[in-house]
Design goal:
With about 240 residues, this protein is an alpha+beta fold. Helix content is about 25%, strand content about 30%. It is built from five helices and eleven strands. The strands form three sheets. A six-stranded antiparallel beta sheet has the order 7-6-5-4-10-11. A three-stranded antiparallel beta sheet has the order 2-1-3, covered by helices on one side. Helix 1 packs across helix 2. It is globular, with a radius of gyration of 18 Å.
Length: about 240
């Protein structure tokens, strides 16, 4: 499948910014009614990681668009009371972060509803294993005001998602890494601070996908949390 000129030009521009001839990218969906106050769409549409080359990127863009009409997405739309198709939709192409660890951050505790706690879940490698629920992640509860660790559970992370030629693969975590923390307390505190800042920016509790590579944290996605109990008091 040959990529149209606009996709080729955009991919070349990304390559120049990255300083890589064929940068590996992540391809994921976005739409006007996705990730709103009433519906999150997490996992409903297809996401593709470690895609390289303009033609391959165009092929997975087409597959991502096709997933809008998949039975999984249509069933979710029916359950949420939404129209069968989004009014407007887009596919985002982002440079892939070759993550040491990745995970999900909640600016409020999604289990207890507590607004004074930030929950950070992390595992080794790319974030797909955490998002898909195939690992028990390293879970850290951080105080919202002081960013101090309140609770810390090191999950038994036996699997991890890694980049391989033309895609990704879930593999066994080497040796003792499975029982070691995927991130430090300082990394968790920085992720919590990011979540709190984004909650203030958007005006409601948020759910982030992040990746850690070396000393840096990368924000991959931000959406509202739709599962908090409404009777819980808000913590500013």
């Amino acid at each position: 499948m040959r990529a149209p000129a606009a996709v080729v030009a955009a991919y070349r521009a990304l390559a120049e910014r990255c300083g890589v001839e064929d940068p590996p990218v992540a391809v994921r969906s976005s739409a006007i009614d996705e990730d709103g106050a009433a519906a999150s769409f997490a996992g409903q549409h297809d996401t593709f990681l470690n895609v390289s080359g303009a033609d391959q990127v165009w092929w997975v863009i087409a597959r991502c668009v096709a997933s809008f009409a998949g039975e999984r997405a249509l069933a979710y739309r029916r359950h949420a009371g939404l129209a069968p198709a989004p009014e407007r939709a887009a596919v985002l192409v982002q440079q892939l972060v070759n993550a040491d660890a990745a995970g999900v951050v909640f600016s409020a505790n999604p289990v207890t509803g507590a607004r004074d706690e930030v929950v950070v879940n992390a595992a080794w490698g790319l974030g797909e294993s955490v998002v898909a629920g195939t690992v028990t992640p390293h879970a850290i509860v951080v105080g919202r005001d002081d960013l101090a660790v309140r609770a810390h559970t090191v999950g038994d992370k036996r699997r991890m998602t890694v980049a391989v030629p033309r895609g990704m693969r879930e593999v066994a975590v080497p040796g003792r890494l499975a029982r070691m923390p995927a991130i430090s307390a300082a990394q968790a505190a920085r992720a919590a601070a990011l979540a709190v800042a984004l909650e203030r920016e958007t005006g409601r509790p948020v759910d982030l996908e992040v990746a850690w590579a070396g000393p840096d944290i990368f924000l991959l996605q931000c959406r509202p949390i739709t599962t908090l109990e409404s009777h819980r008091s808000h913590h500013p």
